[in-house]
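Handoff note, outgoing to incoming analyst
You'll be picking up this chain. Sequence as last confirmed:
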Amino acid sequence: MPKPIVYLTGAGPGDAKLISVKGLELIKRAGCIIYDYLVNPDLLKFARRDCKLIYVGKKAGAHTLPQEKINQLLIKQARLHNIVVRLKGGDPFIFGRGAEEALYLKKHKISFEIVPGITSAIAVAAYAGIPLTVRSENSTVGFITGNEDPLKKDSQIDWKALPRALGTMVFLMGVGNLEKIVNKLISNGKSPKTPVAIINWGTTVKQKTIMGNLKNIAQLAKKNKIAPPAIIVVGEVVRFRKDLNWFEQRPLWGKRIVVTRSRKQASLLSEKLIDLGAEVMEIPVIKIVSLKADQQLKASFAQKEYDWVFFTSQNGVGEFAEFLERSGKDSRIFGRAKVCAIGSETAKSLAALGIKADYVPAQFCAEAIVKHFQEIKVKAGCALILRAKQARDVLPDGLKRLGFEVKVIDLYDTCSERSSALKLKECLKQKIDLVTFASSSSVKNFMELIGRDYRRRLKNVGLISIGPVTSAAIREYGLKVKQEAKVYTIDGLSEAVAKRND
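Most recent structure output, in case you need it:
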């Protein structure tokens, strides 16, 4: 049996994408993950389903476990799991307790490895547009704790040397002692006019930066209610933020956006909006329920040879793929039939199965297919439509008018995600800028979850639609559509959101 090992792993400064490749690989392999307060919870989504997750976060005035208990927990879990990941914010050896934990593991003969992480000391400053060194300005930078061990009798910081030795000073965990830090620097010769920046929740969508100087920064911090976590940067390099601030200039910066897609589908849109600077709240209002239509599909393909098979959504493709897997079939089941996909994303999903769509309408809606078939005078034959239970009847009715013999099989149903009702109402109590809708059923379920006073609750909220069918559903509730995607895809929807940057 492999020897147990504990990986003391840096999770990075907050942005989940700043985790190291090795760190992410270990998260995926771990039998147990013991994680801190500043670890982005999105990283835990990559853990195995059977992985034991243990929170031991510490923040000012609130410690889940004292350090001695955390050390003992590491030993206990290492004896239960082959791979334990101790996930720590930033880097485990930069003002963390990584060294203490490693020494404790060594004392108890538990193997360990250190997996460095990007420390907030450099990453947060970079995300604020502040280079810690600039050749024309300074050649030295130092990282200083703003919160020394309270058990130490004397400070180990040489306050007299700091102003003379360091061009740039970065203080971590120093907001609570800001006035003390400022007074120490000024009293030891640092000019009160020295630029200072404080960056709160750096590298995340909650990032907030205030700028001042040693003389006024404590007052500005109080005025802006700056609280941990934050870093303090002192030095002339702070002036470069004026020209190099990039993170807080993205098109959706400061916007709070609700994504209403199902849990399985939400992440793709969320990632695109986050990359544009938005703060995203995933509140799924749709639950995809498989109808397990295996018998209908088997019988249908066995009894008839189709001229056309229509897939109306990615969900439908996914359900059909699972049917093929369960039944031991492959794309040969189509015979001579041509395949039509409504939407480029549906076509991509088919391509992933090795099935190339013969036709994808320019406009991703049923009306476009019927119009196209009518214009080119396609030869009528037998058509199979694979769709959602609550889908519109535009396509089957239109094909029947063109002379097709039509068979419809419902592969899945879209039900209301009732568990999101409370979260949605709590969310709407705060300021929400935009809500995105990727289907008409998401509109219906969203309004039902809010309740009768949906008009009042959405009075100052912009509603963004993926296409005309979804827009029509919004208008049926007497509401206005702020923006409609020009291309009816998730990329198109995210572009539509970006245009509402007012």
